[in-house]
UniProtKB/TrEMBL annotation:
Tree of life domain: Bacteria
Protein name (Swiss-Prot/TrEMBL): Putative pterin-4-alpha-carbinolamine dehydratase
KW Lyase (keyword) present: yes
Stated family: Belongs to the pterin-4-alpha-carbinolamine dehydratase family.
Originating species: Devosia psychrophila
Catalytic activity: (4aS,6R)-4a-hydroxy-L-erythro-5,6,7,8-tetrahydrobiopterin = (6R)-L-erythro-6,7-dihydrobiopterin + H2O
CDD domains xref list: PCD_DCoH_subfamily_b
Record EC number: 4.2.1.96
A Pfam family hit: Pterin_4a
Keyword annotations: Lyase
Keyword Transcription attributed: no
């Protein structure tokens, strides 16, 4: 968790989440498109929402009923999209 800057651990849901704010809806949606491709590649999908220029992503492993290494890996892959 320490290496996941910007992500917070929701103890109750046993999930990690992060809010991403962009300059426009188009930028936010473009980011979501790229996240979707990463999720499909990993066969691991986010619980997420979009409000105009803001994307909120929460990661947990449904099959495991909580956090798993897949969530950490996907969070890292998502963060790399911001580089
Ligand atoms: C069969 C199972 O649904 C799939 O292996 C994947 C799909 N994407 C998934 N995404 C998430 N977040 N958790 C899962 O357990 C999960 N399972």
């Amino acid at each position: 968790m320490r290496s996941l800057d910007g992500w917070t651990h929701d103890q109750a849901a046993d999930a990690i989440s992060r809010v991403f704010k962009f300059k426009s809806f188009s930028e936010a949606f473009g980011f979501m498109t790229r996240v979707a491709l990463e999720a499909q590649k990993a066969d691991h999908h986010p619980d997420w929402s979009n409000n105009y220029d803001t994307v909120t992503i929460s990661l947990s492993t449904h099959d495991a009923g909580g956090l798993s290494p897949k969530d950490i890996a996907l969070a890292r892959a998502i963060d790399k999209l911001l580089d």
